[in-house]
Amino acid sequence: MDMLVRFFSTIPIELLAAIVTLLAGVATNVLTEEMLPKLRRRFRPEAREAPKSYKEQMANLTRSLVKASADVDRILQEMTEVTQQREGAIVRLEQQLDTLSDRERQLQQEIETLEKIPLPAAKYFASIVERTEKRSAWRDYALFGLGVVVSTVIAIVLRLFGV
Does the CA dihedral 132-133-137-138 come out positive or negative? Predict the structure, then answer.
């Protein structure tokens, strides 16, 4: 350290000032030419991109327009599908409505016909139907019991034969 002090003390102060000035100039040059543009681009995003040519701008705009057109076409296709589904639903509802209207007319005619039948005849008809239904129930029970007996007999016979 003592040696450095002696070395600098032998150099005239003017020469030392010239060297410091030269180094400061070089540092300033490097800072302004290389570092400042990088810093400006970093803090100003719009300055990062170089100006685009007319051809590039038109190409970008055309790509954006094609993409937007494809999106519109896709949306229109979806709207068409939904519309067709709704039309199909409306047609089905109209058909069901026609069917129900026809059924309503038939039932209305049957009601009008039944209203013309005298009450004693309707009671007699109801009693006949009730007896038939009771007979049907007894017949059903008998057939069920007979089926159980027959299946049991068949199972016993098959077991006797070893099957």
Answer: negative
pLDDT digits (tens, 9 = 90+) for 112-149: 887 777 777 777 777 777 777 666 777 778 888 888 88
Q: Both 92 and 127 in a single domain?
A: no
Q: Are residues 43 and 88 in the same domain?
A: no
Q: Which domain holds residue 71?
A: 54-116
Which is it for the CA torsion 150, 156, 162, 163, positive or negative?
Answer: positive
State CA 66 to chain mean position distance: 25
Q: How many Å from the N-terminal Cα to the C-terminal Cα in the chain?
A: 119
Report pTM: 0.36
- Do 1 and 31 share a structural domain? yes
